[in-house]
Amino acid sequence: MPHRLFSRLSQLALLGAILAAPLPAAAQTKNLEWASGSPGGAWFTQTTGVSTLVMEAIPDTSIRVVPGGGKDNPTRIQAGLSQIGMGIDFLSAAAFKGEEPYKQKHDKLRTLGSTGVDVYYMVYVPVEEKRSLAEILSDPKLTIGVTAPATSEHLTLQRALEFYGNSFAKIREGGGKVVISSYGELIQGFNDNQFNVLWTAGEIPSGLASQIVDGRRKVKFASFPEELQKNLSEKYGYSRGVIKAGTFPELQSADVSVSSMGNIYLVSSDLPEDFVYGMTKAIMSNRSRLANIYQAIGRYDPALAAKVQPVPLHPGAEKAFREAGFVK
Question: Distance (Å, rounded) from C-alpha 156 to C-alpha 174?
Fold first, then answer.
């Protein structure tokens, strides 16, 4: 074999070996994607702000925030599309174990623990509505608005309708209407009387609730029936919550009992330990700035966050919590 050809083949072999070798940690974390929630929603605002804190703390890191949802974010991380994501406790646990609505185990899911936010299902109906939520959800002529299929709201509405023998298909066949859109368009459509029930989830305080209160339509919260809460809790792992009387005076005159869930930070097990360590420290050390990003995440407490593990802690997060004395 001519010397030049041998040399050229050697160079190509070396290049192939370099390309096949694992990327160094710095290269793996230079350009990342963070899956948030629906545009205009709380997760999108939170993710945008917290990702900025992380980029400030870890030089040469670029994080791109993309729309997502509590149902789809675990799968985005498992597939390598996103490396970071906002998560919901019971859905993340189901994804990790490969349980419904997921078809396979999402073994790459790891967490930084709780974001400090509990989320309550907030269902808005006109003030003149006299029916219970059970009667409303059983109605084949129901007109209702909800966010995209990627979200937990969408999935939970499907589960609630199924519990009462209803479905999107039956509503459409019965002359009702299901409007699926972003928060901004849903609020506008609700105010314009395009549908009579708005199915959402939010924190306390809730920016979404404030927007609805400021709207043209007079509305109120609908309580979740006991049998529905029990089904969602026992079958799927939802929590139970109470929106205390006086929390939203314009929307309630008493306690409102609803299903609820906890928010967590999700990361891929493929992310290097040093990066996730730095990310966790960045969030812990900027606790005073979190409320300025979004009021509800101002309640973040690393001592509590470290204990919330519906999926395993990432080793980098565990190291940061252990150094701070929150993990033994």
Answer: 21
Q: pLDDT tens digits, residue range 37-90?
A: 988 889 999 999 999 999 999 989 999 999 999 999 999 999 999 999 999 999
Place of tokens 């050697």: 10
Indicate the residue type of 187. I
Write the CA distances from 45 to 122, 149, 194, 197, 290, integer angstroms: 19, 20, 27, 25, 11
DSSP 154-174: HHHHHHHHHHTT--HHHHHHT
Q: Please, what's the largest Cα pairwise distance for the chain?
A: 90
CA distance 311 to 80: 17
Rounded to 10 degrees, the C-alpha dihedral 5/6/11/14 comes to 150
Q: How many whole angstroms separate alpha carbon 68 and alpha carbon 71?
A: 8
CA angle 61–266–286, rounded 5-degree value: 60
Residue 26, CA distances (Å) to 16, 18, 65, 110, 269 in order: 20, 16, 19, 20, 16
* Cα-only R_g, the chain: 23
Roughly how many angstroms between the first and final C-alpha of the chain, as a whole number? 62
Q: Is the pTM of this model over 0.90?
A: no
Taking the C-alpha atoms of residue 155 and residue 151, their distance in angstroms, rounded to an integer, is 7
